[in-house]
Amino acid sequence: MTKVTEPSVPLPPLDLSTPKRLHVIGAAGPGMSAIALALAQMGHHVSGVDIRERQVLDRLRAAGVTVHIGHKRSNVIGCDAVTASTAISPDLNELDEARKLGVTVLSRAGMLASICAQAKSLAVAGTHGKTTTTSMLMLILVEAGLRPSFVIGGDVTDMGTGAQWTGGDWFVVEADESDGTHLELPLHGTILTNIDTDHLDYYGSIEQIEAAFDRYLAQIPGPKVVCADNRRSARIAAHHDVVTYGMHESADVRAVAVRADSGSFHFDVERDGAVLATVHLPLRGEHNVVNATGALAMAVEIGIDPQVAADALNRFGGVARRFDIRGHDAGATFVDDYAHLPTEINAVLRAARDSGDGWQRTIAVFQPNRYNRMAEIWQEYADAFVAADVVVLTDIYSSGTEPIPGVTGKLVLNAVLDAHPRTPVVWLPRRDELVTYLAGAVRAGDVCISMGCGDIASLPDEVMAFRRGAAG
Fold first, then answer.
1. What angle do CA 433, 438, 440 make, to 5 degrees?
2. Which of 61, 151, 172, 437 has the most CB atoms within 10 Å of its CB?
3. Rounded CA gap, 196 and 153, in Å?
4. In sequence order, which residues have a C-beta less than 8 Å from that of residue 208 and are 6 or more positions away?
5. How far is the C-alpha of 213 from the C-alpha of 227, rounded, in Å?
């Protein structure tokens, strides 16, 4: 008989139950700005630093954060703790000074773990789908009157922010696996969306990624809600006491009678053959149907009426850079999306094709991200664009990684053409060429979807501005 071990919940490194002076390095980054905002709203005296002015820093100032531009040793004097992301060099002058002064130095994961310990924390983990699912779950708790605090990887449209501390009993958090953060958080419960190949520079292999999520589930004492549609997450679910969800017939909580209608989805959520609620989700893509089903399943597990959960999902406004319609020009629609992994790209393009919006052509524009990522997984993009009519590829956005000889965006082009030689693919490594081409190629009835997690986010605005300038 297999011995069942009790979950071992990680201990937080810092007690945040009393006010402290805290310093956040890299405060303009999406992850660190959310940390700084939550800490300030908890009542701590927070300072933050970044190398240049950005709009998000004004939001931090409005919350009472003292913002410094430029790293100085004096910034950490008098602090109780300093936190920085793994992207920050450990040799940074502020970190060096903090260590010399005996100030506690925490990673982002360590500070987030300390925040989690101040409430009953529910996390959403997985390779992709985290931000949307976390946002859905948080808004369900809001609808239920539970006043949740939250830290999410992107701005929630309905809230206008990616972080808030309310002082309520519940905390909803996005648990990032890229650097093992998810394994450090003291959590009550979790949703696990999926397990796919990514962050091989940290884990080394997909088997190690899967093993890390297996350990993650093992250390959580409360409800565990795991997606049955993804074969790897379904496989580790069998080792744990979980509730599964999705559209697969094996799921405990299942989306059925799914139908698309003009950019939205209608579906029933059932358990054991009984309908829990009917959802009218104002988002495109069956992947979002699955995300919503997972959020509803967790809500039911913690005692929320499924109809209350459905009411929140019916009004869900989405998350920044998730099928974000940036504008219309001369009958064409321009969309921006954060999708950068093959599964995400495929889901976004299928969402456009099957949305019921009536678009005649889907033009997919992709900017690969990180040299080390593309060196490892470029071949996995072979089938990512099958739902597109035209594929436009540009070069890699480094995100701070060092170039690798022979690793360029052309690897993705080669993968696509080797698998689908008749696919219309255009290779445009330079930004000016990319803008000019799209300005002329996109026509009435098209949806042009630019995808990636680099500076591709501004492309729709650049193309529409060029078109209007040319027309004028």
1. 100
2. 172
3. 19
4. none
5. 13
Number of other residues whose CB lies within 10 A of the CB of residue 257: 11
What average pLDDT score do residues 262-271 get?
92
Helices (H) and strands (E) in the chain, counts: 15, 21
Tell me which residue of 330, 318, 311 sits closest to 263, measured CA to CA. Answer: 318
Residue 188's Cβ-side half-sphere holds a number of Cα atoms within 13 Å equal to 15
- Contact present, 9 and 221 (Cβ < 8 Å): yes
> What pLDDT was estimated at residue 4?
42
Q: What is the pLDDT of residue 2?
A: 36
- What's the pTM value of the predicted model, to 2 decimals? 0.78
Query: Where do you find CATH 3.40.50.720 in the chain?
Result: 21-106
Whether domain 117-314 has CATH 3.20.20.105: the reply is no
Residue type, 46: V
Long-range contacts of 272-278 (CB under 8 A, 24+ apart): 276/300, 276/306, 277/306, 277/307, 277/309, 277/310, 278/310
3-state SS class at 335 = strand
Report, as an integer, the average pLDDT of 14-28.
Answer: 95
Structure tokens at 424: 């219309």
Distance of CA 353 to the CA centre of its chain: 23
Q: What is the 3-state secondary structure (H, E, C) of 210-260?
A: HHHHHHHHHCCCCCEEEECCCHHHHHHHCCCCCEEEECCCCCCEEEEEEEE
Right CATH number for 21-106 from 2.40.128.20, 2.130.10.10, 3.90.550.10, 3.40.50.720?
A: 3.40.50.720
